[in-house]
Design a protein that fits this description.
single chain, 76 residues, mainly alpha, 2 domains
């Protein structure tokens, strides 16, 4: 319960201006697939540490995991 609250608050901060319903949808996806999103986060952070900008690192990692991401997003 507390973990959900902090996760939601973190996502809200990162997604300023995004409707509450969309934030809730993303929180639900992360809660349903925590290992997948942790793996993506770790890969992005590794690329940032190697000198990539956060946006570039995110785009590279998302391209690599595009098929998996489509599956996750398709399972609403």
């Amino acid at each position: 319960m507390i973990k959900e609250f902090f996760l939601k608050q973190m996502i809200k901060r990162q997604m300023k201006g995004v409707p509450e319903a969309e934030v809730n949808r993303i929180v639900a996806l992360v809660e349903k697939n925590p290992e997948f999103f942790k793996k993506i986060s770790d890969e992005i952070q590794a690329k940032v540490k190697n000198g990539r900008s956060e946006m570039t690192a995110t785009m590279e990692v998302m391209r690599i995991h595009q098929a998996e991401m489509q599956k996750v997003l398709g399972n609403k």
